[in-house]
Amino acid sequence: MIIGGSTAETELAALVPWADHAPAITLAERRDRLARVRERMEAMGAQALLVNAGMSLRYFAGVPWGATERLVAMLLPLHSEPIMICPRFELGSLTADMAYDADMRLWEEDEDPFALLADALGGVSTLAIDPALPFQMAERLRRAAPNVTLVDGAPAIDGCRMRKSPAEIALMQQAKNMTLAVHHAAARILAPGITTGAVKRFIDQAHRALGAAGSSFCIVQFGHATAFPHGLPGEQALKEGQLVLIDTGCTVEGYHSDITRTYAFGRVSDEEQAIWSLEKEAQAAAFAAAQLGVPCEQVDAAARMVLERAGLGPDYRLPGLPHRTGHGIGLSIHEPAYLVRGDRTPLDVGMCFSNEPMIVVPDRFGIRLEDHFYMAESGPRWFTEPQKAIDRLS
User: Fold this and answer.
1) Residue 89 phi/psi, 5° resolution?
2) Do domains 8-18+164-382 and 45-152 have the same CATH topology?
3) How far apart are CA 148 and CA 123, in angstroms?
4) Which pLDDT band holds residue 2 (cuts at 50, 70, 90)?
5) Strand blocks (E) in 250-333
6) pLDDT-based confidence at 394, cuts 50/70/90?
7) Domain map of the chain by residue range?
8) DSSP 8-state secondary structure symbol assigned to residue 25
9) Pseudo-torsion of CA 143, 145, 148, 149, nearest 10°?
10) Minimal CA–CA distance to 130: which of 79, 75, 80?
11) Average pLDDT over residues 206-213
12) From the candidate CATH numbers 3.40.50.360, 3.40.350.10, 3.30.70.270, 3.40.1260.10, the one assigned to the domain spanning 45-152
């Protein structure tokens, strides 16, 4: 695929709404999620689980609300139906978003929702808490229910969310396919003088043209700015002979894509070309190491071994890899488990990860190639094929 030579107008005109839509998560699957999380609750000795507004509430109940200062949460007892704690004025909106019926416990603005929650707990002695519940809210609950032991609900919630179903993988595949198409279009609009802001605006418009709700995030870096993993403030204008790093994604039914491409605009130095090839080798080594039953940290170690053999690092020293090799992904763009030293979670069927062992040469340039893979019964499978060469995307 040629880099440059087109315009934003031409590329946007060629993009049409995505035709191959992955099905939404079914009610049966959400019910299965409740059954699976209850098994985990029981194994950890909890009689109930509290799920705060956020991605975990979306996962279990289909409610796509972010957390705010107002308590909106689902109390899931071990042996009875879910209970929703919600401001009364939000009842209509919540009912419209809920995937299934629940017992609604409502509070007015001048009432204490934690007293309402404490009453809903009934005879619960051990309550598992969503790890995303703010500390202040957990403390208010502790004061309202002093006889209830609060425990970390991460083993239950993360234990379910990190293993994706075929339906979840299909939604992620659609999001990643859409973003890869946007990457290709963005590469074609590059020209001397184009600004990072103009490219970001195009990428957002392109995602929308395909039917996504815009870009969920977008990082565009030229030249020296590529040496900083998440960029520098301010606008940059593209020049011949610079590296281009673009990291972007979108969501489909809440499920994320997150793909990075680094390529040359014109001729770049021999050193930049050599580091690009080394980055590709490290990414391939990480993928090869990702086998069922292998601890997550071994995938990170495989990428670092490639770099250390080439004289980079070791560990997080620069020139080298300044961050983890990858992160879990799903309804959250970064979620457990993580491809990093110390995370000994065994790779299991349904786990999904980024693979992005970025190489940074301090204050000069950086190369990041990021594709994602999922664990199938037969081992790792790419969502998107890695970039082929520094001067083309496909």
Assistant:
1) -70, -10
2) no
3) 9
4) confident
5) 251-252, 255-256, 259-265, 326-328
6) confident
7) 8-18+164-382, 45-152
8) P
9) -20
10) 75
11) 97
12) 3.40.350.10
Q: In the predicted model, what is the mean pLDDT of residues 43-53?
A: 98
Cβ contacts of 188 within 8 Å, gap of 6 or more: 1, 2, 3, 4, 5, 6, 11
- Cα 336 from Cα 344, distance rounded (Å): 11
Q: Are strands 242-249 and 251-252 parallel, antiparallel or unpaired?
A: unpaired
Q: What are phi and psi of 375, to 5 degrees?
A: -90, 115
Residues 343, 353: contact at Cβ < 8 Å?
Answer: no
Q: At what angle do helices 135-144 and 113-121 cross, to 10 degrees?
A: 60
d(CA 157, CA 116): 23
- Indicate if the pLDDT at residue 1 is higher than 70: no
Sign of CA dihedral 39, 44, 45, 47: negative
The string of DSSP letters for 65-112 reads PPP-SS--EEEEESSS--EEEEEGGGHHHHHHH-SS--EEEEE-TTS-
Quick: pLDDT tens for 249-293. Answer: 999 999 999 999 999 999 999 999 999 999 999 999 999 999 999
What's the CATH code, domain 8-18+164-382? 3.90.230.10
